[in-house]
Amino acid sequence: MTLPPRTGRDALTPRPLSVQRGVNPHAPGSAHLKLGRTEILATVSVEDKPAPHMRGKKEGWLTAEYAMLPRATTDRQARERNLQNGRRHEIQRLLGRALRASLDLRHFRNQTLYVDCDVLVADGGTRVASVLAGYAALHDFADRLIHAGKLSEWPLAHAVGAASVGLIGDELRVDLDYAEDKVARADLNVVATDAGLLIEAQGGAEEGPITHAEYVRLLTAGVEAVGALLRELHRQL
Q1: Which residues lie closer than 8 Å to 196 by C-beta, 6 or more apart?
Q2: Residues 6+ apart with CB under 8 A from 152
Q3: Residue stretches of the annotated binding site
Q4: Mean pLDDT of the chain
Q5: How far is Cα 98 from Cα 129, in angstroms, rounded to an integer?
Q6: Which of 6, 18, 140, 211 is deepest in the core (most CB within 10 A)?
Q7: How many domains in the chain?
Q8: What backbone torsions phi and psi does residue 229 show, to the nearest 5 degrees?
Q9: Is residue 10 assigned to a domain?
Q10: Looking at the domain assignment, is residue 12 inside a domain?
Q11: What is the torsional sign of CA 142, 72, 66, 220?
Q12: 3-state secondary structure string, 95-146?
C-alpha cells in the first residue's frame, strides 16, 4: 500500500492550528479555527431558560449543534435541514458531551448554553476541529463574562480538546486529513483534557480487527496529540 504523503510534518505531529476569537459581533462568545485546511466557525448563545430536564436543578445545561455548509467539500452537498441526520446527530452528541465536560455548569443555573459549530471547509477531522473551536468559543465567552463583571470565578473547569488518530498500513498517524482518513484501516477520535484525562474515544477498525496493543497505541497517541493541540490553542487565545 502506498501511504498518502505528509508535507511539513511527521506522523505524530498535528496539522498547523490557528484560531481567532471574538469573530462574531452578535455572539457573546465565538471563534474561527483552522486545523490544516479544515475550518470551523463556533458561536456561543445563552437562553435564560433551563432545559426541560434541568428544571429545579442547581446546574444549567449546554447543548451543541453541528452543520456542514454546502461548499465545505469538493462537491456541493445539500444543505442539512434534517435534524435527525444520523451522522450529524452523532457528532452533535459528541460535541455536547465534550463541551459540557469543560464547564462548571453551576455558574449557569436556569440557563441553557448553545454552541453552534459550522464547518466552512472540510478536509478531515471536522468533529475534532469542532470540539477545539467550541472550546475556544467558550473560552472567549468566559473571558468576556469575567471582564464584564458578570462572573467572579472562571467557569471553565477543564481545557478540553480532541484529535483524530489512525493506522494507515502499519504506520500510526495523528490528526488525519481526508486523504489519510479514507484509507485508514482503523481510526479513533479522542476527546481529552490538557491534563491527559480521557473524556471519550470514538471509532474502530475499518478493515478487520486490530490488536489490543494497537488500540492502546492509538489511544495514547490521541491523548498526547490533544495536549499538543491545546497548548497551541492556549498560546493563541
Answers
A1: 223, 227
A2: 146
A3: 87, 125-127
A4: 94
A5: 12
A6: 140
A7: 1
A8: -65, -40
A9: no
A10: no
A11: negative
A12: HHHHHHHHECHHHHCCCEEEEEEEEEECCCCHHHHHHHHHHHHHHHHHHHHH
What is the reported pLDDT for 173? 97
Cα dihedral value 51, 56, 60, 64, nearest 10: -20
Burial of 224-234, coded b for 16+ CB within 10 Å and e otherwise, reads bbbbbbbebbe
Q: Is residue 2 part of a domain?
A: no
Note the pLDDT of residue 203.
93
Check which CATH number belongs to the domain holding 206 and give it: 3.30.230.70
What residues form the annotated binding site for phosphate?
A: 87, 125-127
Sheet holding 112-121, edge to edge: 17-21, 29-35, 38-47, 112-121, 61-68
Say which residue, 119 or 206, is predicted with more confidence.
119
Closest by CA to 196, choosing from 165, 233, 166, 159, is: 159
**Spatial distance between the Cα atoms of 15 and 137, rounded to a whole number of angstroms:** 20
Element (DSSP H or E) covering residue 225 = helix 212-236
Instruction: Please name the amino acid found at residue 147.
Output: H
How many other C-beta atoms lie within 10 A of the C-beta of residue 126? 24
Query: Rounded to two decimals, what is the model's pTM?
Result: 0.94
Structural domain harbouring 124 = 17-236
